[in-house]
Each structure stands twice: as C-alpha cells, then as structure tokens.
Design brief:
32% helix; 3-stranded antiparallel beta sheet; alpha+beta; 7-stranded antiparallel beta sheet
Length: 298
C-alpha cells in the first residue's frame, strides 16, 4: 500500500476502527465485543418468531437461504439498467472504466464493480436491501438495529488465469459483527461462478487468518459436507456471515451479475464518506429506516 493511501486511511475513523478489529480473529472474542456494542445501544428487537429463527440459523450455520426476492422481469430491468453504466476493475486501478458488455476489459479482469451512485439509483435494489423480513432478522441477530454500511453490484467474468482474489477461500473481517446479503441478478449454475460457503466456519477457530486458503485445506478442516454451493435462478438471494470461509468459484461460461448489501454494527470504510442522495429520493419510511440507510441517504 502506498504511504499516501495509508495516511489518508488512518485519518478516517472508519479505517482506524476497521484495522483495529482485524487484530482479533478468535470468534469468541469478536462475539463478546459485538455483544457489548449491541447492549450499549439498548435496542432489543420486538418478538418475531420467524425473525428469531432466521437469526438463530445464521448463528448456527452462518447461512440463510431466502428464496427469490426479485421476479424475472425485475432482474431483467436491473440488468438493462446496468448494461450501459461504467464499471471499474478494483484490482487494476490503472485500467480505465468500461461498460459491462463492451470493450476495454483487461483479459485477466475477473470482476468489475459499478459506482456507488449507480447502485443506489438502480431499480429495486434499495427496496430489497430494506426488506422488512431481512431487517427484522438482523435486528434479532445483532441485538440492535442493523446499519446498511455497504452496497455493491459487480459482474464476474471468465478468464484464462488461475483463481484470483476472492475466487479463493477466505474470511471477510469487516466489523466486529456483520452479515451480507447476496442477490443473483443472472442465473447461476455450476459453470457460472456460484458462491460457495463453509457452513459453521464463522464460529470456528480453524483456519482463522486473513489470507487465502486452498480448497484442500478447507475440506480437510471442515469436511466436504460443510460446503454449500449456492446455485440458483436470477432473483435468488441468501444472507451470510462472511467471517466464515467462502469464495466465488471462477466463472467458466457466461458472465454473472450480483448485488450485495452489507449490514453491520459500525460504518465500514467501503461505503461513501458522505450520503449520496436525499432519503426521500429513493425510499420512504420512519426514523429507524432513515438511520439504517444513513451511510448512503441523508
């Protein structure tokens, strides 16, 4: 990392908090810290058996499958919206922007991300991120109301190089406690880069390091039966504790479009420094919903 980049990050409170919590990788220690933060906020959830059951499944396995959250026509609308919006190769920042289906992509580019402003303006995605069933379940999970601290949409492409970056098993270490929503916006079969999760790994100290892990090491530690390969039709979604081991399998055919929302206790540094638009421009709701979306909408 360049010195200038590091200094800018250290001047940002979000990055300081981010790097501090990454020093603690034992699941028990992280859980205790998260519980202390939630108790200090005094926001116990309302009684909701379904939400409580979803939260308990997240604690036990790290994964909750939600079924289809968007209809086929809605997914088509999102894909059409993004088709002419520029994307960036975050792993090659020197590369100029390009459109998802156009020219200009580096031959080794396996993932290209849309701009924050384009993501929040996309049809249907903010509504999905604010699905009452999801927010209620995560209120139960965290013990306080969740903050939507990251929103992203990206295309994954086939390449002729070995698995890159998040195409290898790894743990995300974004906050003391956080959950991610994944929504497929294209059909995803075994050849289209399905997400793979290791059930139960979020609560395990096995392979608890910030690094990439070989498939054989993960299978040796957790067993083949722990692997959950998430295939599905466009519109399908799942919640996941990505402190647990996971990866996106490399795309072999076609291209894959995914939407992701990150829910956390604290603001994480992936979101904008300041809100991008007025809340009422995109959503309607009470103060609780405004607070949940305050990173992106003012």
């Amino acid at each position: 990392m360049k010195v200038g980049t590091l200094l800018r990050q250290l001047a940002d409170r979000r990055w300081r908090r981010f790097y501090w919590q990454r020093r603690f990788m034992r699941p028990e220690a992280r859980a205790r810290a998260a519980q202390r933060i939630a108790r200090a906020r005094a926001q116990p959830p309302e009684s909701d058996p379904e939400a409580g059951k979803m939260a308990e499944t997240l604690r036990r396995t790290g994964l909750v499958e939600l079924g289809r959250l968007l209809a086929p026509a809605e997914c088509e609308e999102v894909r059409a919206y993004f088709a002419d919006k520029q994307v960036l190769d975050h792993y090659r920042p020197e590369q100029p922007p390009f459109t998802p289906h156009g020219e200009g992509r580096h031959p080794a580019c396996h993932a290209a991300y849309h701009l924050d402003a384009d993501v929040i303006a996309a049809p249907h995605l903010l509504e999905v991120a604010n699905d009452p069933r999801i927010l209620a379940a995560l209120h139960h999970y965290f013990g306080c109301r969740p903050l939507i601290s990251g929103l992203s949409a990206w295309w994954s492409y086939p390449t002729e190089v070995a698995p890159q970056q998040a195409e290898n098993f790894h743990r995300d270490v974004d906050d003391w406690s956080f959950i991610k929503l994944f929504v497929y916006l294209t059909d995803v079969g075994m050849e289209n880069g399905p997400h793979t999760y290791v059930r139960g790994s979020a609560a395990s100290a096995k392979l608890a390091a910030i690094k990439r892990f070989a498939d054989e090491d993960v299978v040796s530690a957790f067993g083949e039966e722990a692997l959950a390969i998430q295939t599905g039709e466009a519109g399908g979604a799942f919640l996941e504790n990505t402190f647990g081991l996971h990866k996106g399998k490399p795309v072999e055919q076609g291209i894959r479009l995914v939407f992701q929302a990150i829910y956390s206790l604290n603001p994480i540094p992936y979101g904008p420094k300041r809100p991008l638009a007025p809340f009422d421009q995109y959503l309607s709701g009470d103060d609780r919903l405004r607070k949940a979306n305050s990173i992106y909408l003012a």
